[in-house]
Design brief:
The protein is an alpha/beta fold and 477 residues long. The protein has 3 domains: 67 residues, no CATH class; 131 residues, Reverse transcriptase/Diguanylate cyclase domain (Alpha-Beta Plaits); 246 residues, Alpha-Beta Barrel (TIM Barrel). Helices cover 51% and strands 18% of the residues. It has 18 helices and 16 strands. Strands 7-8-10-11-12-13-14-15 form an 8-stranded mixed barrel, surrounded by 5 helices. Strands 2-3-1-6 form a 4-stranded antiparallel β-sheet, sandwiched between helices. A hairpin with a 2-residue loop joins strand 2 and strand 3. Helix 1 runs antiparallel to helix 2, helix 4 packs across helix 5 and helix 10 runs parallel beside helix 12. The radius of gyration is 31 Å and the shape is elongated.
Length: 477
Amino acid sequence: MLYSKKQERSRRFRLALRMGIPILLLMSILIFYVIRQKNFAFTSLEIALFATIAFIAVYFIFFLINLGQNETYVDRLTDAFNRDALLKTLKKGDFKTLVLLRIDNLPYINDHHGIDRGDKLLKTLVLFLDQHLQSYGIKEPVVGRYHGGDFIVALHLREEESVAVFEEFSANHKEINGISIEIKYAAVSIEKKTDPSDVITHLYDTISLQKGEKPTQKRANEERLDITLLEKEIVEAIEKRAIYLLFFPIKNLLNDTVDFFEVAVRLDTETNGLLMPKKFIPVVNRLGLERAFDEALFTTLCKVAKEVRNDIRFTFRLSPISMRYEGFCEKLAQIATYHHLTASRFDFQIYENRPYKDITRYKVIIEEIKVFGFTVSLENFGAVNASVEYLKKLPVDMVQFDKEFTVGFSNPRQNALLKGYLQTCRTLGVKALMRWVDNEELLQAFKQIGIDYAQGFAVSNRSLTSEILISRYGVKS
């Protein structure tokens, strides 16, 4: 039996005793007193009264037990601890390591196999996980369902030992109930005074950065950041607009000039220095700061853009969260106007982690963006999350091809597919950008088949700072 279910059964038994014994004692005293007074001489009314009292007492006991069950320790779907019970257990326990285990393809499973089968899979997973942990001598493992297909496991093992345990579990459970599953996990040591919620937050940030690598592949010299301090510094950097920009040249293959730049962003923090997006974007998303960050980014970019020639354009990622917020793009247009810049100089890269289902709504959003004069690019075109279905229905101005088309250019099938996409783009009046173009031979080949823009070492082997960009492409006095 799962440790969580044992705890729940014990809790219910204690609850029944605490509720029932006082009532039974009270009834016993009342009956004893009446019997002594009456000498067993009862009227039918008094008997009915006793029966009513007994019924009310029994009903009250069961009512309280049922009420207590609503405040259960157990997640009703999986029999693991629920979130509230898990956090209470973590605060009371003396654990060495917390592990976040995620069924990464749960949305796909629910969509293609049905929610019922997805639910059964989660329950079976918890049972298998409990058995696996007990096989390592962990008698009462604490397993809690935190959200969706995410589970938190608390162990008395060191972090390295915990990773080994979960690596084996992941390797041995590629399929459950006839359904293929994709398991991700992250482990972190926990100290006695650390708030478990902060550690779980760190685990979520860690697992969101994983791109197929195992947790054991961490760089040896990578320092663990102070979670609370990092979060605080990210918020302060956004508020102060401590944004550091880098510009990657993009070559216009039609006229062999560089008139387009992709913008990369770093956050400048006091203690942790310049933070890469993989460090701060998960925190920004979790805290709901997407709009504040995008506004700070765009304001900083406008200050640079007004110092360079009017024919220089910029492309950068805009959070899907910001883009869907009513009035946000109008706000960006106002910022551009304030700096005496035309919106057409800015290209928003749209991206999604998974295919966007409500494509009609997405179309409306893009049309609203274009009303203000901004252009829109479809990033990673040709990948699963940016398929030709987008190109058919969305009024984008440019597609930025996924790197697989560059890497696989010598593959005849990839080449044929790329040329077919390009023909569609030309018909629709959509520009095409190819990334990762790292040699002159590829650059000329892409130019020959009709690619409009190229980016990579063949164009430039380094990014430009704001100062260098302004010095090279600044407005001539």
